[in-house]
Structures are given as structure tokens and as C-alpha cells.
Task: inverse folding
């Protein structure tokens, strides 16, 4: 199990660099090398780099001698290996057989699929450096990429200390540093292969919008909407291929945020293109809802099944099958629409936004700072006013409406985040998030409860629901009602915190910051 | 994390050979494995070519002035690490005795390793002492190699009674015949008779084989240098039996 690691690459001009490195080591250490074998190394991570964020590197290694293996390297240098059969990537965690690698990563990747992020064909020789007892104290790997391979890296050498033998590895590294024809690098073959494949860690997050209080409001809003467009374009392939549910989630969030931005701040743009895009965004929102809603039910079903008191979780299997079947139908419709001319036109409208020569709408709000202060204050007032009007007897619709207003405020805060003091911004967001969670639980429980009832009726009418399933679904509906009641009770407390003098003071600080 | 320990009051019954070979097989099967060589003679450390030395000695580990994690060494095999012996372990009894709840100390020391290892194997020195009692508290299973003789069974029965009387979760006992010499009629008779007679003995018996003696020469588990030997097959069978 390796400890810390060092990397060397051969100088392009020096074709004997790595061979002379071994010769140099052999003068001072006992060295043994394996025969060369051909390898295909494929590194995997989720689209949002969850493994990288957790300090893990996952590799599928296919070799002529060892077959196919998954190798996981954790932040502190520990390695876990698991032989596997062929896995078709991208794959979700349940496609991996049980074993040490899966056990380490399943809590990290959760519902996200693993995708190949870089690959490298290499000819590899393993080298053991041994002490006087012929105990391996340092492991080295020398790899060269075939010149015809898709990914070309210079010949490279990796030095890993066996656990507990770091001092010996340091001596080996120091010796290698004196060899001409090779030089130390800070990046691993994985990072080099990523770079060669045109990827960088964190490339799932769009480049942050550069915004200053003094920049023209129109430019700021255009940049924000274009950044959402880049998320839509980036996730589109994943949505259509149905790699995992989160591509559609991110796709949908970007649409919703664009729609809100256009609604709340679109008046600073020229009216023509904005008016064209607005119905497109509504169409896209409606289009993606059924599949996403079904995803939410399917993902939440195991937890709900665990909470059943009298029914057995397996009683819900026909319900799950029904949801999956409905999802397949809705997903087909979604993909058809995303491949349609209408969708391509919507993207064209989106891309054209802000590029028109038509002048902006006349108005007083010419800078991003002024726009942010004005829209944030208005949105905050709407939330406090509507929230204050809600009492014990208020209709559920009033809470639903408040939830929408909270979302608008949240989007505005996120859009104009670059203008705010980070600490105050975080505090304001925390107050709002707490309120949103309660409102979310209230509405989601209601909507899901109604949906469960509707699904039960449909399943009964089509004869696809045995009695035990309908009974279990009844229990689910009761569970959801209990959640809703709980959220209703918690509302007053959450709103009181949001509406407190302290929270309002923090919000004023944020809006003052916006205006520069 | 599953903790196994090889134990017998007598020396020279195959405890270390069992610990080394089972640790190797455990790691080979993909289980992250740590072998702790608790015997100051350091035979397991020697076989894995690791110097029997721990910075701070047994005192540092027991008093937690030095870290168990820092003392661990990687072996030449994937997923198999070793916590080496140290000559100071000869005083481990006294060091444990100076602690509060001495018999639970070993278990406390192992607890932080649960995230890093699936299997820990403790190779215990012979004798009955505070160290062996601590091992009984720390282990989920005691692996007890028995020389094929009636007296060995008597000692095993005494141990069974002792373990039952422990005031905390007692480990399960997995006794098996070891160093069986098929050329000796007495060995053959005892193994046949007692295996049929008693249901608390494992079915696998480890032979008295040259391959096992060669471990100290080859400085490797049997499966590495004599994978097709009878001894290697017997350790495989023992390991498989322990998984059931």
C-alpha cells in the first residue's frame, strides 16, 4: 500500500532518459523490474467530480497479465483493488460488483454515474526497489505511451513509497533528481492525461460571471443568462443519454433560473429577444417536469419504503415498476422534444439574447449594482409581506405562493452574489434556506401525496396494483400528510427567524453592498 | 473490521505460520488486512522481511505516546500491512497492567483502524498472561492450533471454560489440528477420532510439512513459493472454513 508519491517525465529530446534513471538507481539500490506489459488506463469520476472532491482517484486498469481491475487511491495514499468483469461506462454504482472499491466509493458518488474522464494506453514496467533484506520499500512504474495512441504523454515514472518506508522513497527520489534526461513534475499521469483529454477538475461548474456594481445592467443580466445557457448546453448530452438523474436536474435548474432572471430583471434587456425567449423557457420547464417529478418519486421511494409501519417495503415493488414505466414513457417524449427543431430554435433565441443591436429598454437602472439593490429589495419585501400575512388558517396555496417568491429571492441573491460581501451573503442565504426547506417540505409532501393517490387510482383502473400495493401506497400518502403537517407547524418559527430584525439588518447590508 | 487472533498456551504449535498464511489469503481475497506481530520473537515480522522494531516500543503504543498507524509497515503484498514485533513486547504484560482496564486496552488501540482495515490478525505469544487475556477481549475469533494429542484437547477445554467466563462478549473459538504428521499413527488416530467425536473442532487439519518449515527460509507465505503444495491447499481450506 503506497505512501507519498513523486513523478518524473522523460525529456522529449532524450530517448534513453528513463533507462539511465534505472541504471543510476541500480548503482545504489537493489532493483528488480518486471517484463513490460500493455495497459489501458481509464480514469473515472462523476460529472461533478465527487471522487476528486473527496480526494479519491478511481482507475479501471486493463492489462494483459492482470485482466480488468478497479483501483481506488484515497487521499492519504491507501489503495484498494477489485477485479471486475467488463463494465460499460458510464455506469451507476449498482453496476459495480460488491467489493472493497465499491464499498469505499458508494457513499461518495451516491446517485451519480461514473464516467470515463481520461484514458491512456501505455506500456508499463513495474520496478521494485528493495532493502538489504530484499524487502520491497519503494515501488516504481515506468510507462510509455504508444506513439499512435489517442492520448500522447511523455514517458513517465511514478515513485511510490511502500507504507512505512518514506525515507527510502525520498532517497530514491533524490537520486532520480540528479539523472539527466528526466525531470520531476508535480502532476500525476492522471492529471497529465486529463489535460491531454482537454479536461480540468471542476469543469462542470460554469466560469463565474464577472460582475461589478458599475457595469451596465444589461451586460450583467446577459452574462448571467448566457452562463445558464452554458449549463444547458453542457448537460444536454447527459440528459439525452440518461447518464444519471442529476443531468436533468441541473438542466432544469438552469432553465428555471434563466426564466426567473428574465422575469425579474429582463426589463433591462431589449424587449424583442427577451420576449421571444420567455415562452421557450416556459415550454422547456413544462417539458422537463414530468420526468424530473418521476425521478424524485423513484429516488425517494427507498426511504419512504423504509418508513412503512404495517406494509412491507416489497409491497411497493409494483408501484416502483409503474413509476419506472411512466418514466420511460415521459423520458421518450422529453428526448424527442430535445431533438426537435423547436428546441434548436429555443437555443438560438437564447444564444442571440444580448447580442442584438436594438437598444435596451429605457429606464433609470443602468448599472448592475442599482439593478441588484432594487430587485433584491423588492423581492425581499414580497417575501416578508406575504409571509407575514400567513396565519394558522391560511390556505396551502398561500404557502405555495410564498415558496415561489422565496425561490425568486434566492435566484436573485445567487445571480448578484459577486457584488456581495461573502460572509454577509452566506448569512442571508442561510436564513432564507431554512425557510425554503420548510416551505419545500410542505409543498412537496402535498404534491407527492396527491400524486400517490392519483397513481393508485390509475394503477387500480389498469389492474396493475394488487391490494397489498394499494394499502402500502395508502400508508405512503399518510406518511406524506404527516410530513406536511410537521412542516406547517414548523413554518411560523422559520419565518420568524427570517423576518427578525437581525436577519433584516443582514439583508440591508447585502443590498447596500450591491449598489456599490 | 473483523479481528482474528492465533492463540495457544503452548509454543511451537503453528500459531505464526497460521497467522502469516491466513493474513496473506485474506489480503489476496481483497480484504484490507493488518497482521500485528505481538510475539517479541518477531517471527511473523521476519517472514515478511520487516525489521522487528517499533518506534517508542510497546510502551509508546500502549500509552499512546506513539501512534499505531505510524508503526504500520506495508508488506510486499497488496492490501496486507504488518505492525511489527518489538523486543519490548516481552514487557507488554507490565505495560498493560499499568493502564486502567488493562484487558480492554488492546481493543481500544485497534478501534481507530476500523476504517482502514477489514481484517486484523493478531499473532500472539504463547502463554497465559494479561496480553493473552487482552487478545481475547479484542478478538472476534480465536484461532487455536492444536497438536494432535489428548492433552491438547484438555487445554482447549480449559480455554473454552475460561473464555466463557469473560465478562464481556467472548470471542468465538476456532480450534483445528496443526502440525499433523500423517506418518505417525497416533496423530492419524487422534485426528480421526476427535474430529468425529467433537463438533467444536474445524474439519481442516494443517500438516507438519516441509513447505511450512521453509517459510522462514523463503521469508514468504506458503502460497507465494509453494502454491501447489499440500500445505498451501490446507491453509486455503482453513481460510474457506473460517468464512462459513
Result:
Amino acid at each position: 500500500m503506497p505512501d507519498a508519491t513523486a513523478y518524473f517525465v522523460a525529456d522529449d529530446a532524450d530517448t534513453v532518459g528513463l533507462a539511465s534513471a534505472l541504471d543510476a538507481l541500480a548503482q545504489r539500490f537493489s532493483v528488480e523490474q518486471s517484463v513490460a506489459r500493455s495497459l489501458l488506463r481509464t480514469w473515472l469520476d462523476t460529472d461533478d467530480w465527487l471522487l476528486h472532491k473527496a480526494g479519491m482517484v478511481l482507475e479501471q486498469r486493463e492489462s494483459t497479465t492482470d485482466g480488468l481491475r478497479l483501483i481506488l487511491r484515497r487521499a492519504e495514499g491507501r489503495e484498494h483493488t477489485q477485479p471486475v468483469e467488463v463494465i460499460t461506462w458510464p455506469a451507476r454504482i449498482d453496476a459495480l460488483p460488491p467489493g472493497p472499491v465499491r464499498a469505499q466509493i458508494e457513499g461518495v458518488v451516491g446517485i451519480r454515474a461514473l464516467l470515463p474522464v481520461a484514458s491512456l494506453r501505455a506500456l508499463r514496467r513495474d520496478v521494485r526497489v528493495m532493502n538489504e533484506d530484499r524487502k520491497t520499500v519503494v515501488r516504481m512504474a515506468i510507462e510509455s505511451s504508444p506513439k499512435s495512441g489517442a492520448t500522447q504523454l511523455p514517458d513517465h515514472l511514478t515513485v511510490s513509497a511502500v507504507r512505512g518506508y518514506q525515507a527510502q522513497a525520498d532517497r530514491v527520489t533524490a537520486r532520480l533528481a540528479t539523472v539527466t534526461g528526466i525531470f520531476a513534475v508535480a502532476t500525476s499521469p492522471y492529471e497529465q492525461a486529463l489535460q491531454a483529454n482537454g479536461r480540468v477538475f471542476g469543469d462542470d461548474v460554469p466560469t463565474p460571471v464577472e460582475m461589478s456594481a458599475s457595469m451596465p445592467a444589461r451586460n450583467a443580466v446577459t452574462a448571467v443568462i448566457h452562463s445558464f445557457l452554458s449549463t444547458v448546453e453542457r448537460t444536454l448530452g447527459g440528459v439525452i443519454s440518461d447518464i444519471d438523474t442529476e443531468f436533468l436536474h441541473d438542466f432544469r435548474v438552469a432553465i428555471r433560473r434563466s426564466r426567473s432572471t428574465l422575469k425579474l430583471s429582463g426589463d433591462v434587456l431589449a424587449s424583442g429577444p427577451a420576449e421571444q425567449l420567455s415562452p421557450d423557457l416556459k415550454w422547456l420547464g413544462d417539458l422537463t417536469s414530468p420526468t424530473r417529478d418521476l425521478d424524485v418519486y423513484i429516488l425517494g421511494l427507498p426511504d419512504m419504503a423504509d418508513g412503512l409501519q404495517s406494509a412491507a417495503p416489497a409491497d411497493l415493488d409494483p408501484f416502483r415498476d409503474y413509476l419506472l414505466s411512466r418514466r420511460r414513457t415521459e423520458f421518450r417524449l422529453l428526448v424527442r422534444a430535445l431533438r426537435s427543431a423547436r428546441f434548436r430554435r429555443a437555443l438560438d433565441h437564447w444564444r442571440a439574447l444580448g447580442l442584438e443591436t436594438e437598444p435596451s429598454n429605457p429606464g433609470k437602472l443602468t448599472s448592475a449594482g442599482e439593478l441588484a439593490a432594487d430587485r433584491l429589495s423588492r423581492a425581499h419585501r414580497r417575501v416578508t409581506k406575504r409571509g407575514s400575512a400567513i396565519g394558522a388558517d391560511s390556505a396551502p396555496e398561500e404557502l405555495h405562493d410564498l415558496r415561489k417568491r422565496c425561490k425568486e429571492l434566492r435566484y436573485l441573491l445567487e445571480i448578484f452574489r459577486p457584488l456581495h460581501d461573502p460572509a454577509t451573503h452566506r448569512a442571508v442565504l442561510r436564513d432564507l434556506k431554512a425557510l425554503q426547506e420548510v416551505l419545500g417540505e410542505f409543498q412537496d409532501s402535498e404534491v407527492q401525496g396527491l400524486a400517490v393517490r392519483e397513481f393508485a387510482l390509475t394503477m387500480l383502473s389498469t389492474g396493475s396494483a394488487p391490494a397489498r400495493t394499494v394499502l402500502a401506497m395508502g400508508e405512503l400518502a399518510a406518511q406524506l400528510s404527516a410530513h406536511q403537517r410537521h412542516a406547517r407547524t414548523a413554518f411560523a418559527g422559520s419565518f420568524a427567524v427570517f423576518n427578525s430584525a437581525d436577519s433584516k439588518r443582514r439583508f440591508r447590508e447585502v443590498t447596500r453592498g450591491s449598489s456599490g | 473490521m473483523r479481528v482474528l487472533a492465533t492463540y495457544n498456551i503452548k509454543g511451537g504449535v503453528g500459531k505464526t505460520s497460521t497467522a502469516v498464511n491466513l493474513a496473506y489469503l485474506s489480503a489476496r481475497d481483497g480484504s484490507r488486512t493488518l497482521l500485528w506481530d505481538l510475539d517479541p520473537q518477531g517471527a511473523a515480522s521476519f517472514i515478511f522481511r520487516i525489521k522487528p522494531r517499533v518506534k517508542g516500543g510497546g510502551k509508546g503504543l500502549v500509552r499512546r505516546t506513539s501512534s499505531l498507524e505510524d508503526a504500520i509497515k506495508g508488506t510486499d503484498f497488496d492490501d496486507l500491512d504488518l505492525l511489527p514485533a518489538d523486543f519490548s513486547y516481552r514487557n507488554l504484560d507490565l505495560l498493560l497492567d499499568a493502564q486502567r482496564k488493562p484487558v480492554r486496552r488492546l481493543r481500544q488501540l485497534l478501534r481507530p483502524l476500523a476504517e482502514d482495515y477489514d481484517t486484523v490478525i493478531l499473532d500472539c505469544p504463547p502463554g497465559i498472561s494479561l496480553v493473552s487475556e487482552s487478545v481475547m477481549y479484542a478478538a472476534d475469533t480465536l484461532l487455536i492450533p492444536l497438536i494432535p494429542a489428548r492433552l491438547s484437547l484438555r487445554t482447549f477445554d480449559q480455554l473454552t471454560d475460561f473464555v466463557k467466563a469473560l465478562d464481556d462478549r467472548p470471542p468465538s473459538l476456532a480450534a483445528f489440528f496443526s502440525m499433523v504428521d500423517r506418518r505417525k499413527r497416533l496423530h492419524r488416530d487422534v485426528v480421526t477420532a476427535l474430529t468425529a467425536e467433537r463438533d467444536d473442532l474445524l474439519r481442516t487439519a494443517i500438516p507438519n510439512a516441509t513447505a511450512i518449515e521453509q517459510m522462514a527460509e523463503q521469508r514468504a507465505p506458503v502460497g507465494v513459493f509453494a502454491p501447489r503444495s499440500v500445505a498451501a491447499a490446507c491453509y486455503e481450506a482453513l481460510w474457506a472454513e473460517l468464512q462459513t
